[in-house]
């Protein structure tokens, strides 16, 4: 698989697509989120796997998002996600709350090609009360009593974005232990992946690399984006840029501040290239 | 010995609850994000020589899981995590937790980040220690606006456990799932039953004289300020600087 440009990958995502994103501790592609904002995509249905962070907040701030299904949205130590909070208050996005293992379970159902999977817990929570798509049934295997249990439908996102450390010549990508990226790639129709670099060889023929690799069969497109997770950390390659996220959190408190941030950090690509 | 910080007293109180012989054993404890005091308590238990496996979810290096974040929930689903810590933007007198927000669903008053794994972990862990440092009537309410995770469940609903206790910046409450109420176990120095009552929006039980939460021992303080601070410096640099006065080497 040959790598494409970042803008070409972003151009593949149509308005109204469902898009799964990993959180800030698990290889989000902030570079692709910024490219999507530049392309002016609208009405995305975001899925936080299992929670949402920086990339989700900037997509919401730029008006790209119709709904967010997630178990939490936060900027970590920089606090609440300002554009998410503002959009929820204004009613400009639909927020569909979940709980972390429910998101994983719905994706695992899609991964297996089954229509639903059960999950314990949840009964008596207002999360369940607001999820007409989740059903409570009696456990058919219970020997005594009804044993109610929640069934969750398979979740099959149109796209997933994540940022892997590297790709090989065959188009396999390497995420190390961040295996939720593999689950999302398996469950999604197309995985669009940014990488720091493309290396020679084939990860699947290397016993030490194979367990951290995702087979190219699941990968729908690759672009090279150096520091593509920034300001989020990438494994042991680079750390979390707390100052950058802190500045974002301050500026994005207001719509004007967010617009100024976006003009400088998303649209001014010359300034980005000169970094 | 310099003065005892509130954070140190809370960490020691949490450690005593972890070791409570009347509670199910804590062989494997998971500690989530932004929980420096629970993490310090777990390290204290471990450094005191008790055999316990700690899975610190937000450790930057040496994350305990190799299957992604779902592994925590799969382990917990099987009953392989014995103890977890939860908090909440609102907690009520029946130990219901609200991590979603105030006002109409989904938090049209003040939106909190969200429920995370609480709606699963609270059911599937044999015991949960609730921790929230801010002890005010806006946090500890009579009834939460929205339930992320319920404190008790009707008979027939599969549930391994619930809250063991609630530790705050003012006191330690014990939870009684049979009557879905808290009782006041101890108050931190400077507090009284009345001051706790004034700061708490829910009713709770008081049995006889309520003792003060004990001072950490010299040994406990030495562990916290030395080897435990060493362990926590990478994950919680601000906490270590503020409480232990130690900065990470550049």
Draw up the topology in text.
The complex is a heterodimer of chains A (275) and B (250).
Chain A: H1 6-11, E1 18-21, H2 30-39, E2 44-48, H3 54-61, E3 65-70, H4 82-90, E4 94-97, H5 100-112, E5 116-119, H6 126-129, E6 135-138, E7 148-153, E8 159-168, E9 173-174, H7 180-187, E10 190-199, H8 207-210, E11 213-214, E12 219-224, H9 242-251, H10 255-267, H11 269-274
Helix pairs in contact in A: 2-3, 3-4, 5-7
Chain B: H1 6-18, E1 28-31, H2 36-47, E2 53-56, H3 70-78, E3 83-86, E4 90-92, E5 97-98, H4 118-124, E6 127-132, E7 140-141, E8 162-168, E9 171-176, E10 181-187, H5 193-198, H6 218-232, H7 237-244
Parallel strand pairs in B: 1-2, 1-3, 3-6, 4-7, 6-8
Antiparallel strand pairs in B: 4-5, 8-9, 9-10
Helix pairs in contact in B: 1-2, 2-6
What do you see in this structure?
The complex is a heterodimer of chains A (275) and B (250). Chain A is α/β, with parallel strands linked by helices and 275 residues long. Chain A contains eleven helices and twelve strands. In chain A, the strands form two sheets. In chain A, strands 1, 2, 3, 4, 8, 9, 10, 11 and 12 form a nine-stranded mixed sheet that branches. A three-stranded antiparallel sheet of chain A has the order 5-7-6, covered by helices on one side. In chain A, helix 2 links the parallel strand 1 (18-21) and strand 2. In chain A, helix 2 runs parallel beside helix 3 and helix 3 packs across helix 4 (82-90). Chain A starts with 5 loop residues before the first helix and ends with a helix. Chain B is α/β, with parallel strands linked by helices and 250 residues long. Chain B contains seven helices and ten strands. Chain B is globular and about 45 Å long. The model of chain B has no long low-confidence stretch (mean pLDDT 94).
């Amino acid at each position: 698989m040959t790598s494409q440009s970042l803008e070409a990958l972003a151009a593949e995502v149509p308005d109204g697509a469902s898009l799964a994103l990993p959180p800030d501790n698990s290889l989000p592609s902030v570079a692709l989120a910024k490219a999507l904002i530049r392309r002016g995509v609208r009405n995305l249905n975001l899925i936080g796997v299992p929670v949402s962070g920086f990339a989700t907040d900037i997509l919401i701030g730029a008006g790209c998002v119709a709904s967010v299904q997630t178990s939490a949205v936060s900027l970590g130590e920089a606090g609440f996600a300002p554009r998410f909070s503002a959009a929820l208050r204004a009613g400009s996005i639909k927020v569909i709350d979940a709980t972390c293992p429910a998101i994983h379970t719905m994706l695992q159902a899609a991964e297996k090609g089954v229509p639903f999977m059960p999950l314990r817990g949840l009964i008596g929570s207002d999360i369940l009360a607001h999820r007409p798509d989740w059903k409570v049934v009696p456990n058919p295997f219970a020997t005594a009593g009804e044993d109610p249990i929640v069934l969750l439908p398979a979740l099959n996102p149109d796209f997933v974005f994540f940022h892997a450390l590297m790709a090989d010549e065959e188009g396999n990508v390497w995420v190390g232990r961040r295996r939720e990226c593999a689950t999302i790639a398996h469950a999604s129709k197309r995985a669009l992946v940014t990488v720091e670099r493309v290396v020679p060889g084939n990860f699947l023929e290397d016993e030490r690399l194979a367990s951290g690799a995702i087979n190219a069969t699941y990968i729908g497109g690759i672009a090279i984006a150096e520091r593509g997770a920034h300001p989020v950390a990438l494994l042991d390659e680079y750390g979390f840029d707390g100052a950058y996220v802190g500045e974002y959190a301050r500026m994005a408190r207001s719509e004007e501040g967010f617009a100024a941030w976006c003009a400088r950090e998303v649209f001014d690509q010359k300034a980005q290239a000169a970094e | 010995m310099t003065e005892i910080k509130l954070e140190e007293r809370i960490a020691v109180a949490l450690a005593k609850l972890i070791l409570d012989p009347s509670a199910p054993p804590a062989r494997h404890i998971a500690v989530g994000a932004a929980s420096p005091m629970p993490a310090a308590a777990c390290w204290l238990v471990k450094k005191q020589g008790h055999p316990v496996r700690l899975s610190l979810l937000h450790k930057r290096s040496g994350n305990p899981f190799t299957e992604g974040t779902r592994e925590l929930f799969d382990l917990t689903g099987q009953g392989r995590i014995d103890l977890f810590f939860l908090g909440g933007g609102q907690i009520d007198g029946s130990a219901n937790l609200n991590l979603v927000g105030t006002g109409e669903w989904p938090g049209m008053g003040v939106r909190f980040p969200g429920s995370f794994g609480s709606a699963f972990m609270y059911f599937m862990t044999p015991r949960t220690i609730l921790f929230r440092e801010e002890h005010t009537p806006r946090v500890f309410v009579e009834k939460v606006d929205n339930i992320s995770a319920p404190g008790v469940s009707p008979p027939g609903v599969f549930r391994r456990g619930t809250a063991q206790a609630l530790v705050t910046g003012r006191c330690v409450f014990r939870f009684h799932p049979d009557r879905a109420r808290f009782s006041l176990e101890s108050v931190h120095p400077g507090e009284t039953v009345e001051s706790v009552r004034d700061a708490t929006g829910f009713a709770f039980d008081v049995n006889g004289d309520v003792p003060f939460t004990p001072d950490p021992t010299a040994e406990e303080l030495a562990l916290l300020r030395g080897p435990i601070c060493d362990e926590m410096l990478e994950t919680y640099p601000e906490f270590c600087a503020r409480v232990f006065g130690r900065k990470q080497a550049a």
